Structures are given as C-alpha cells and as structure tokens.
Amino acid sequence: MPRLFLVTGATGFVGSHVAEALVARGDSVRTIARAGSDIALLEKLGVTIVRGDLTDPAAIREAAAGADVVIHCGAKVGDWGPVDEYRKVNVEGLRLLLDAVTGTRLQRFVLVSSLGVYAARHHYGTDETEPLPDNHIDGYTQSKVEAERLALEYHRKQNVPVTVLRPGFIYGARDRSVLPRIVTRLKERSVIYIARGRYALNTTYVANLVDAILLAVGNPEAVGEVFNITDGEFVSKRRFFEAVADGAGVPRARGTVPVWLARFVANWRESVFRRKNKPHPPRATQAQLKFAGLNLDFSIAKARTKLGYSPRVSFDDGMAHAVEWYRSLPTK
To answer: 256 in helix, strand or coil?
Structure first.
C-alpha cells in the first residue's frame, strides 16, 4: 500500500536517490526545499515541494503533516566553521522535526547519520557498541553525535519510532561536492598518500545506502536501533584514489607522507586558520586526515543479521557508475 514519505535533503545527493527509489515503487514523497534550490528532478518525479528549510518551524510542520514515514537526509555538512552553525541545522532542526511528528501515527523515522560519529582514530571492525566521544574534531561530527542522542532520546521518552543509520564515505552519481573536488586535486597533483595509502576507507555506494534505508523502514526490529552501513569490502585509500583518477582520466597520486607528519601539519594549519578567523578551511584538516590517513574499517554484521542488509553493488561497479556520471557533466 502506498505511503506518504517526508524525505528531507531530497534536493541533495543522498536524498534525491531516496526520493527516486520511493517514487519508483509507488510511494508519495514530500520534501522541504529552500528558495533557489534545483528542484527539476523532484518536479519530474512528482515530489511535493514545501518551501522552507530545516530551521523553519512552519515549513517543517507543513511538510510533516500526515507523513507515514520520515527519512531525514538533510544536514549541514563540511569540516569547518563554528559548531553552533552545525547545531542550528543538525540538532535544533532535527528537534523541530521530531516535535512535529511526536504523538502522530508515524511508522518510522530514519535518521541518516555518519560513521564520522566514532572517535577520530584507527578502526578495525568497530561495531555499534563503541561509545561515542563527547567532544569531536569538528562542528559536523560533533553535531551528528548530538543529533543521534537527541533522536534516540525521543524514541525512549516519546515513542518516536527512530532508526539510526551510520553510512561511511558515500559516493555515486549526483555527488557534486566531494568527487569533483577530489578530481580537481588530482589534476593539481596535490593529493598525497598518507602511510602509502594502505589503510581502509569506509566506502558506501549510494544505492547500497538507499537499500539500507528501505530495509530500516520495513523491518520492525530496526526501531530503536543503530546500524553501521558500508559496502562491506576492504577498499584501501590507494585503491579508492586510483579508481577515481583512472575513471576520470587524470593522473594518479604519487607522493606519500607518514601519519605523524600529516597529523602535525593538520593541527598546525587548523590552529593558524582559526587564529586568523579564516572563513574557509586549510588544505590539511583533521577531517581530511581521518579520510585519507586513518584505518576506517567498521563492522556491518549487525546490519546484515538484524536489518537483512546485503550490499548489492561492489565498490568497483559503484565507482564506475560514479565516474561515468562525473564525466557526463557539461563542465568540470
């Protein structure tokens, strides 16, 4: 039976894929979109658009009214800027949304979080029992930890049927942020491997994440639970960057530095930029060090067994689709 889904962030990368999958199976989709957002794809899909943003209580109440399911993909992302700017959207915006659905007939509230909530260290098979740090490396990850805690509190105290998903590095078609930036830096030959690129990257192809989201919606055992979501295979940093370079037709990265040096440079550059109150991040940040220089291997055993999740798209196939989309862009 078709249901009404509120998908936040549907004008963005992940949310657009979720909306597309829901429409394809016959569900109705509603979203919130800021003025000036590109809604061409959503209009083509027949998605209902409520104008506003995640800090607008009236828009959130209108968008949530009568929804059977909420899939919360919308967030302020990035690795630079005051933590309160991230909290305004990622925590207080979430609170408005949770308040809007508390006491309604909502069947599921899926919060798309991030594996970034775990401590910024090497991870080898880390699972969901790992405690999260109270203080994080940047505003985004700090706010995502606080958002998870808030959502689960609403589940415990208000019976909102919350499920939290923690994807890793998400890649695929329509990523207009990270993949193009990586290609640009490869062209500039400014990508340098840390520890020879041997450590794991927690890749999550967008279609695999969409599958996990739909499983979380349909599985009653998902309520009140948290799940790590990745492609379920070992992908080294070197393999990742070489796949991007080869697919995009740009030179492969060559240089390498040790982890300790990369950490020193990131700490130094961040401190300088903060002292000068720079509005943009330096080339080397703690978030970039984590992405490029730490072993990011997380267990998806719980998602496999309890959620029924089984990644259907391999890294090689997913990256091929991602770079094919990138190469189809009219300008780069």
So the answer is: strand
Angstrom CA distances, 36 to 51, 57, 77, 176, stand at: 10, 19, 19, 17
CA–centroid distance for 101 within its chain: 23
Q: What angle do CA 152, 158, 163 make, to 5 degrees?
A: 35
| Cα-based distances in Å from 24 to 18, 189, 310, 329 | 10, 41, 21, 24
Domain spans, the chain: 4-178+202-234+296-316
Sign of CA dihedral 328, 115, 138, 87: positive
Written as tens digits, the pLDDT of the chain (332 aa) is 679 999 999 999 999 999 999 999 999 999 999 988 899 999 999 999 999 999 999 999 999 999 999 999 999 988 767 889 999 999 999 999 999 999 999 999 999 999 999 999 999 999 999 999 998 888 899 999 999 999 999 999 999 999 999 999 999 999 998 999 999 999 999 888 888 899 999 999 999 999 999 999 999 999 999 999 999 999 999 999 999 999 999 999 988 888 777 777 777 777 877 777 777 777 777 777 777 789 999 999 999 999 999 999 999 999 999 999 999 987 64
Topology of domain 4-178+202-234+296-316 in CATH is Rossmann fold (3.40.50)
Q: How many Cα atoms sit within 13 Å of 146 on the Cβ side? A: 21
Q: Which residues contact 120 (CB under 8 A, 6 or more apart)?
A: 136, 137, 141, 286, 289, 290, 294
State how far the Cα of 265 lies from the Cα of 217, in Å rounded to an integer.
Answer: 43
**Closest residue by Cα to residue 53 from 73, 33, 83, 39:** 33
The pTM of the full predicted model, rounded to 2 decimals, is: 0.93
| Residue pair 307/226 in contact by the 8 Å Cβ criterion | no
The Cα–Cα gap between 211 and 181 comes to: 27
3-class SS of residue 14:
helix
Name the residue among 135, 123, 119 with its Cα closest to residue 294. Answer: 123
